[in-house]
Amino acid sequence: MITQLRKLLPQLLTITLFFSLFLASCGTDSDPSMGSLKVSMHDAPIDSADQVNVSIKQVEINRDGSQDGWSVINEPNQTYNLLNLINGATAVLGDTTLPAGTYQQIRLVLNETGHNVVVDGQTYDMKVPSGTNTGVKLNVNADIEENIEYEVLLDFDAAHSVVEAGNQQSGVNYLLKPVIKAKSQAITGAIAGTVDPAEAESMVYAIQNSDTLATTIADTSSGEFELIGLEEGTYDVSIDPRNSDYEATDTTGVDVTVGETNDLGTIQVSQGSIL
Questions:
Q1: 18: pLDDT confidence band, cut at 50, 70 and 90?
Q2: Judging by beta carbons within 10 Å of its beta carbon (0-12, 13-18, 19+), is residue 244 exposed, middle or buried?
Q3: Which pLDDT score is estimated for 37?
């Protein structure tokens, strides 16, 4: 019996080795290559409010474009003051690994409550007419590649998302109707600079072909500003002081290159004529 086993031992070792290699090969083929996705949010600000607070429940992504293709990538369940997300500041809504492939849409699911706007120191709750159940869907067409981080930048436009309803007699109400644009950080650049003096409290706009594509408020202490998420091209930068003692000024022909920040240096705004 022992002699027979010794004769069969080389065959058994060969079979064992074959199956080990086979299983290892199967495991390699079935494990998908992984990339990573980061979803960040910034704001196009609103001049008529002190705060715009939005409560986001979760972030989902869709790979195959079907209703059943949604999967949750993060559940922040957190309130964000959009007016803090200006001049290059962003909030990370999700950062995860995903199987390589093309993902068509991102969906933000908002909480039913927790949204409010602060105007002249008074807080008003904002109702969301739609979007809490189905979420806010955004087309991204993100190509996730192995060992590469893909970043999607969501521009939450507070100025167009906050809608005032009612009147002083019936009572002022506010609605939240999210207006959001999604862009890949890989295909955008930025414009930066400093408005002097800072006390001009300037709004800063990036304009292309008469369309305002990015907005921010220069820092009221330093005058610094940054306009992010701009696609490559040439822009006009408009400085519009909120302090009526100063006059608006424009800088034309500002070039934006992917992955770079065009620093305009110091832009001087002049005081208006004193009559």
A1: very low
A2: exposed
A3: 93
39, 174: one domain? yes
Domain membership flag for residue 183: no
pTM, whole model, 2 decimals? 0.79
Cα dihedral 167, 168, 169, 175 in deg (nearest 10): 40
Q: Which residues contact 260 (CB under 8 A, 6 or more apart)?
A: 189, 190
Residues 6+ apart with CB under 8 A from 143: 101, 102, 150
Assign 223 to helix, strand or coil.
coil
Distance CA 121, CA 186 (A): 39
My answer on whether 257 and 123 are in the same domain is no
Q: Are 172 and 124 in contact (CB under 8 A)?
A: yes
The pLDDT value given to residue 28: 41
